[in-house]
Design goal:
The complex is a heterodimer of chains A (about 400) and B (about 220). Chain A folds into 2 domains: about 190 residues, no CATH class; about 160 residues, no CATH class. In chain A, about 55% of the residues lie in helices and about 20% in strands. In chain A, the strands form 2 sheets. Chain A has a 6-stranded mixed barrel with strand order 4-5-10-7-9-8, surrounded by 4 helices. Chain A has a two-stranded antiparallel sheet with strand order 2-3. In chain A, helix 11 packs across helix 13. The longest helix of chain A is centred in the last third of the chain and has 39 residues. Helices cover about 35% and strands about 20% of the residues of chain B. Classes of the chains: A alpha+beta (about 400), B alpha/beta (about 220).
Chain lengths: ~400, ~220
């Protein structure tokens, strides 16, 4: 008997040890439940993080665009005889490439907002790239490399050359390079619909992991793009990254309210994807809840049986002067101990399963499906939650034990 | 106790009174045998005296304290400090050793293992001749040994009243004699009052006094000394 243990811990531990088969089985049950929760949570968190990372490596969290041009009818004729007002057919206007009005002050305003990390103005539009007889339509994105490459990590995607950009440089995708038969150091002629034209040197080839993107996307400096697209001094969009990717929609609304410029968050532009992520989160929470519930019922049922089995001993303890409160605490501690021991086992099994998953579940080329972010917080939370579940589950049986009439209990 | 009554199923058509106004005085250091046929109310009387059960009428004073109006917490405290029990069956906590069983009332009262508790439990086990078996689990002891451990445990808190409900009923004559002798010694050495329920007339004769419980009442002349 440990000298430093209080009475309730001594009796609780001994009661559990006495019914060791029962105790071992319920601890195994809790461990399996906790292992499922740990494994599933880490896996789904990793999966979600990977999805989001893939989506957000190629785009900013929030994009500010100039307002769309809208055709308005100035006068709708009213026929007094029929009492009908004309409802003319209005042709949708063409959306010209135009700059965000007062973009410098808008950008400065956004930089001052809480939760905003980076603000990068860009000038982008369509262009034609010509190399000898070959030409391809491209999307020309003019950026400030120092800021923009922190939003979209183009340097990480460079497979040949470097991500260096001066006013005469261009970065192109590997598929466009292949179509045009160019490589690093070669020159390309870039022309735009408004007559802008420039000869640029290919300084780097990148691979965005998508053939379409690799064929169309090109990066030049902001100044080069402004000159080619006829947007001198202007920008066609402002790219923003925020600290919490899930707060992007709220911050986007705040930006629109503060600046009057339309701001689209990645959540709005990837609504279906975001809904899928949310659905996955909800189903994960639901599964965790029901696993936790089954663990709680398991603990409660074992303790109910234990109260029946130990009723005579509870009676003897009560005859010795042990109070109802002490009896209550003995059974609560049993519930807590079961939860704690089960969760320690469950965390270990979960960790082993995650390790095995990372070790054996791999792509054909040997790379892992996606990196798992194994957070110590997940294990701490599982330990605390399982212990708390044990305590709560033990409450009803503990109350029953405490309320036992000692005379009836001793008589059996 | 004065006019103690105990009825079950109070207020129901099947209400049954098992003790019909019992008056009983037990002096300090007195060793009193309680005899009577099965179902006469001996165990109910013992449960009430031991504060395990409440009377439905009358009053009860234990160690000078009126218990009728005490709440469960106070009754439990008084029981732990002033009353020791020895039951007929299943006296000990099965998962604990002999030493731990003896220590249990002291640990429960203090809330933890305090200084001197192990020494006191060892000395009590020695006094019942079980020093050698102190680390044996209760379930590994014979019936007689278990009762001796139970006697040692009942003395752990130095109670003023010791209640023994047929403690020898399940033992052979030799073991029964040994347990009775232990109770008698404890009574003489520590001066506590003992209420000893038995069907054994020979053992009852060796007590200071014998009271007869018949149909929920004490036989004439049993109340006083």
């Amino acid at each position: 008997m440990n000298r430093w243990l209080p009475f309730e811990w001594i009796v609780a531990a001994r009661f559990l040890r006495e019914g060791r088969m029962q105790t071992a089985l319920i601890i195994a049950g809790i461990a399996i439940g906790v292992a499922v929760i740990v494994f599933m949570s880490a896996l789904l968190t990793g999966l979600q993080a990977n999805f989001i990372r893939r989506v957000l490596t190629a785009q900013s969290h929030i994009q500010l665009l100039p307002p769309k041009e809208v055709a308005r009818v100035l006068d709708r004729r009213f026929d007094a005889a029929t009492g009908v007002r004309d409802d003319p057919i209005v042709q949708a206007p063409l959306q010209r490439l135009k700059s965000i009005d007062q973009w410098q002050s808008v950008a400065a305003q956004i930089e001052g907002l809480a939760g905003v990390v980076l603000v990068s103005p860009t000038a982008s539009g369509s262009a034609l790239v010509i190399r000898g007889d070959a030409n391809r339509a491209i999307s020309l994105i003019g950026v400030d490399p120092a800021v923009y490459f922190r939003i979209v990590a183009v340097p990480d995607k460079i497979v040949r050359g470097s991500a260096r950009l001066t006013n005469t440089d261009i970065l192109i995708g590997i598929d466009l390079a292949s179509d045009l038969g160019v490589t690093v150091g070669d020159k390309l002629r870039v022309s735009t619909a408004n007559g802008g034209s420039n000869t640029l040197t290919v300084t780097g080839l990148f691979d965005l992991g998508n053939k379409g993107a690799n064929q169309r996307t090109t990066y030049v400096t902001l100044r080069t793009a402004q000159s080619l697209l006829g947007l001198v001094g202007g920008v066609s969009s402002i790219e923003v990254t925020v600290q919490d990717v899930y707060a992007a929609e709220t911050i986007a609304r705040r930006i629109t309210a503060a600046t009057g410029v339309e701001a689209d968050s990645w959540i709005a532009t990837n609504a279906q994807f975001f809904t899928a992520v949310q659905a996955q989160k909800t189903s994960n929470t639901t599964i965790r809840f029901f696993v936790g519930l089954s663990v709680a019922f398991g603990i409660a049922s074992v303790l109910v049986v234990s109260v029946v089995q130990k009723s005579r001993e509870i009676g003897i303890l009560r005859a010795m002067g042990i109070s109802r409160g002490q009896v209550l605490r003995v059974f609560l501690r049993q519930g807590g101990l079961l939860g704690l021991l089960g969760s320690v086992g469950g965390c270990s099994i979960g960790l082993a399963a995650l390790w095995a998953w990372q070790r054996y579940a791999r792509n054909p080329d040997g790379t892992p499906f996606f990196p798992l972010d194994i957070e110590p917080g997940l294990f701490v939370a599982s330990l605390l939650l399982a212990t708390l579940t044990g305590l709560l589950a033990a409450f009803a049986p503990a109350l029953r034990a405490a309320r036992l009439d000692p005379v009836v209990a001793i008589r059996g | 106790m004065r006019g103690v009554r105990k009825a079950f199923n109070v207020g129901l058509p099947i209400e049954t009174e098992v003790l019909h106004g019992i008056d009983l005085d037990l002096a300090h250091g007195e060793f009193c045998a309680v005899m009577g046929p099965s179902g006469s109310g001996k165990s109910t009387l013992l449960n009430i005296v031991g504060l395990l059960d409440r009377p439905t009428g009358g009053s009860l004073r234990i160690a000078g304290e009126e218990t009728t109006d005490l709440d469960d917490r106070a009754l439990t405290h008084l029981r732990g400090r002033s009353v020791g029990f020895v039951f007929q069956y299943h006296n000990l906590l099965a998962g604990f050793s002999a030493l731990e069983n003896v220590m249990m009332p002291m640990i429960g009262d203090a809330g933890f293992i305090g200084p001197g508790m192990v020494e006191r439990a060892c000395s009590l086990l020695e006094s019942v001749g079980l020093s050698k078996w102190r680390d044996n689990l209760a379930t590994n002891l014979s019936g007689g040994q278990q009762q001796r451990v139970a006697v040692a445990r009942s003395l752990a808190m130095s109670p003023q009243l010791l209640l023994a409900d047929e403690p020898t009923g399940n033992l052979d004559t030799k073991a029964a004699d040994a347990v009775f002798a232990l109770l008698r010694d404890a009574n003489r050495q520590h001066g506590m009052a003992v209420l000893f329920v038995t069907h054994n007339a020979v053992l009852a004769q060796r007590c200071d006094r014998t009271i007869q419980v018949v149909d929920g009442m004490l036989a004439a002349g049993a109340a006083g000394r």
